[in-house]
Amino acid sequence: MKQNYLYEIIRLSYRFPLLTIIIKQVIFWIIAYGVLGFILYFSSLSIFKGTNSPFTLSLAMLILTVLIFGFMNGIILGIFEYFLNKKSNLNNSLGLTILIGSFAYFITIMGLISLTRLIIFWVLELLHMDIGFVEVILRDNWIYHYAILLVYTLFMTLIISFISQIEKILGPGYLLPILLGWFRYPREEERIFMFLDLSNSTRMAEQLGHIAYSNLIQECFLDINKMVKKYNAEIYQYVGDEIVVSWPLEGMKEYVYIEFFFAVIALLQERSKYYTDKFGVTPSFKAGAHVGVVTRVEVGNIKRNLAYHGDTLNVTARLEGLCKELDRSVLFSGALIRKTMVDKKYKISSLGFRTLKGREAKLEVFSID
């Protein structure tokens, strides 16, 4: 697997969310109906007995039927899923979300089947192809075959809805690599990490209480997620009131991590009235950023997770913690400044060499004016 494969998938999914969802749906339904079609083709099920039309299926006709069903269902359901995601309720449980999505898909797709049936007849007759098999499936004993298709489609909508929710948990682009076991063994990468921590969190927690405080964090993370998509960041993890994001060094825009941080601050300031009216506080984040080689590997057995290991994360966390001591909103390591050459675009100030907690070697620390 190329190092930038996942980053390219993430970037495309952020930039073209509707197209990404449509492609996923089209591929899924072509495979789903392909499996059903080939089962019928190779097993000659008793479904064909007693019909008025002979079993005259050809592979070309089967492939054409599967493609028509797959593309029609994939495009329509992709558009449907895109708008369903926008309206999704975070308060719903994962199970309820899967059931709602499955039911919505199912109702939509059964309407499409009738439309697709008419299109198949039109295409096959236009191409002057033998429609004997299609007559068996779609015309003769239609109610019986419709019931079989109904059950099969219901099962498949549950699967695609489940896959969509698992993909949200893992993040875009990660499902297939995890299924293939690409992270069972450590892989080295050079990455930029940024730790963003809610400023004055202790005071806010005491002022709001833990329920309102949790709602505040949830709202903040939703706003930060908007900037994550815009600046092609990967969310590594949420830890309490802290969010960790990263970018692969290779192939990324040099200044993206700086632009990302200030975009987050600008968005929170823009929505300050909303936060003040709802919570009585205006949230702000402090951050530390560093670059270095890390290993990514799948860990755990009872609960599996993708983890990054290496001193890079420790340094980044220490830089974020140093923000309060130095009264800065964001700090960068000297290694990161030199690697990305941001001093050519931004006014960068060195705060000297600092000894970070738990490390003997001193690290040069920079801030941005």
List the SSEs and their pairings.
Blueprint: H1 5-15, H2 17-43, H3 59-86, H4 94-126, H5 132-138, H6 142-170, H7 175-179, E1 187-198, H8 201-208, H9 210-230, E2 234-239, E3 242-248, H10 256-270, H11 272-279, E4 285-299, E5 305-309, H12 311-326, E6 330-333, H13 334-340, E7 348-355, E8 362-368
Parallel strand pairs: 4-6
Antiparallel strand pairs: 1-3, 1-4, 2-3, 4-5, 6-8, 7-8
Helix pairs in contact: 1-2, 2-3, 3-4, 4-6, 8-9, 9-10
Coarse shape: elongated
Query: Got a strand count?
Result: 8
Structural class: alpha+beta
**What is the mean predicted local confidence, pLDDT?**
79
* Radius of gyration over all CA atoms, rounded: 27 Å
| Count of helix runs | 13
List low-pLDDT spans: 45-56
Beta-strand proportion: 15-25%
SSE ordering: HHHHHHHEHHEEHHEEHEHEE
Residue share in helix: 55-70%
Instruction: Report on the biggest sheet.
Output: 8 strands, mixed
* Quaternary structure state of the chains depicted: single chain
Kindly, what is the distance between the CA atoms of the first and last residues, rounded to a whole number of angstroms?
40 Å
Describe, in plain words, how this protein is organized in 3D.
The protein has 13 helices and eight strands. With 369 residues, the chain is an alpha+beta fold. Strands 1, 2, 3, 4, 5, 6, 7 and 8 form an eight-stranded mixed beta sheet that branches. α1 (5-15) crosses α2, α8 (201-208) packs across α9 and α9 (210-230) crosses α10. The longest helix is centred in the N-terminal third of the chain and has 33 residues, at 94-126. The protein is elongated. Mean pLDDT is 79; it is low at 45-56.
